[in-house]
Amino acid sequence: MIKNLDYIDEEVYLKEKSLFFNESWILAAHKNELLNNNDFVTFEYYGNKIFIQNFNGTIKSFQNVCLHRFNTIHEEPYGNRVSSCLYHNWTYGKKGNVVGLMCRNSFERDHINELKLKEYEVAFCGDFVFLKLNEKLDKSLQQYLGNIFTPLQEISKHFGAKTIDYTIEHKVNWKLLVENVLECYHCTSVHENSFAKMGFGSVKPEKFDFFDAHSWCEFPKGEDVKPNKIIEKSLAGRTFKTQGYLHFYLYPNAFISSVEGKGFYFGFMLPESPSKTNLRVRYFSSKFEKELSESEQNIIDFINNSSNDSLDLVLNEDKKIVENIQSNLVNFKDHSPIFGDEEFRILKFYEYFNKQKNKNRYNESI
Q1: Average pLDDT in the 302-307 region?
Q2: What superkingdom does the record give (predicted)?
Q3: What pTM was estimated for this model as a whole?
Q4: By the 8 A CB rule, do 354 and 220 touch?
């Protein structure tokens, strides 16, 4: 299985980094973040600065570094403006080429015309935006996601407007974050004031599916939980309804979840070192079958704010636990964690991940 050393060792971390770049598509955004011309989203992945932008209706992705003197083009995590470096106003178009700069005649024309930002291939699963970081990867996005593609495509259509977007630093190895979200075995003890009160964690899931390291699972709601009639009435017109807590893990770095279709969490994991991982947190409201009145929208805004607070509580409860675990591993390097039947998605994840690591070792040796 896995040794605790694998959560703290620099050499292991660097090999995993190579695996991520060579073998995977990554889920980076939702189309609702890129609806308007010049809308953009940025992130930094293992030191690589990347932006995704709407260029007059075409979504493209490029390295987020100006080719003039290597300043960052977009410094904000999201926004709306042309892809122009704020140092000397070099501006880039949808082909990654320089389309505007000050004092153009002072530069060699042919050289400027040849310059292009490094581009990343973009593909879509419904309204989810994926990037391929390694151009040599010979799998299409649909091949990469397998049978997870269709249910993921379906849920993507029901996202409403983004309500929050922030990042939480975790002093942990990325795998601890993955393990934590792949089970609800801890929900009744760690989340007694959130998930447990909503009735999750006490009933064993019966609906789930896997493809390679990707998986989805629906955690049922306890039968003794009474619904909030005001919330239920206000959200009755939402376009997506499920009876439980629906959770997707998209290898290697993304989590999508929803409690009964009442809103949608999009977690984006950004490893920085063996013991540091940033978690970008985005939350989207529900989509509704018809346009809401002002009073109805006010109620939905209140519900969304409450959901945002609940999400923040859950994430920080988890953060405390996984950071405690990380701090203890140095004294148990040769030990391994123990996973039981309730943690079956973790076992499936490692079954695939260890196979990929062994394949990578073999390729390095020949």
Answers
A1: 90
A2: Bacteria
A3: 0.93
A4: no
Per the structure, the complete domain to which residue 94 belongs is given by: 25-136
- Per-residue pLDDT tens over the stretch 334-347: 999 999 999 999 99
Contact 155, 27 (CB under 8 A): no
CATH of the domain at 333: 3.90.380.10
The total domain count for the chain is 2
CATH number of the domain residue 64 falls in = 2.102.10.10
DSSP letter assigned to residue 275? T
Sign of CA dihedral 310, 307, 197, 258: negative
Tokens of 234: 């206000």
DSSP code of residue 292 = P
Convert the pLDDT of each residue in 38-74 to its tens digit.
Answer: 999 999 998 899 999 999 999 999 999 999 889 999 9
DSSP code per residue over 88-136 = T--EE-TTSBEEE-TTGGGS-HHHHHH-B--EEEEEEETTEEEEES-TT
Q: Is 87 helix (H, G, I), strand (E, B) or coil?
A: coil
188 contact partners, CB below 8 Å, separation of at least 6:
195, 196, 201, 202
